[in-house]
Amino acid sequence: MEVRTKPRYSVLKTLAAAIAASGTLGVTNAAAQAAPAAAPTPEHSLATKLSVFSEYEYRGITQTSEKPALQLNLDYAHSSGLYLGAFLTNIKWLKDGAKAGGFNTNANLEVDLFGGYKFEVVKDITMDIGYLRYEYPSSKAFKPSPNTDEIYVGLAGGPFSAKYSYSTSTLFGVPNSKGSTFIELNWAQEVMPKLTLNAQVARQTVKKNSGLTYTVYKAGGTYDLGDGWATGAYFKTTNAVEANYTVLGKDWSKARLVAFVSKSF
To answer: 9-21+42-264 domain in CATH 3.40.50.1980?
Structure first.
């Protein structure tokens, strides 16, 4: 990696308010006739998941300064394709950003609220359209606010999925960044019973702040332990400009291995 000098104080102050840094096989007719009918999809479903990560990183950028994170996912789905959800996690990037900028904050929590609609556009291809709100309580000291709104559209079929996200507000407090985008291509495939491998290539563009634009790469796996338990790990790296993502001596964008364990209820 190219060695770069640390950004000037003004750039760090911008960072303080800125970055997020937030298949099946065929069967014979006889076997098909003998197989039990698939259970009907419930009209309403609610899923809860509690996870512990070695660190919380989002879009390749650490959100907890390489410290562990406790996370909660709540997901409601209707048989029509409508869904709502919430995600909660501890964070540290706002506190570090404030310290680098010469002020203090109690903002150490991220609450994401989202909703959308999934539907099949053609056989085995699903479209997902939705809205996502990133909320950071106690972050009023930051100007612009790190609270962010995004709309998104995605397509999924087989082991592949793609998603396009567009910010309708400034992106995580970066000045004049309304209209920033995140484009991602994902792959996930069960390669043996209980073991799923996954990978991602994605591009974060930051409107009117090209120095903060970067590409992220991820690859890893998840193992189903049974009874709702899962564990896994993945490696993430980016080509972000190191100087622009270094705060209090830590490069938030650097390559790291992230591990996790989760329990679904």
So the answer is: no
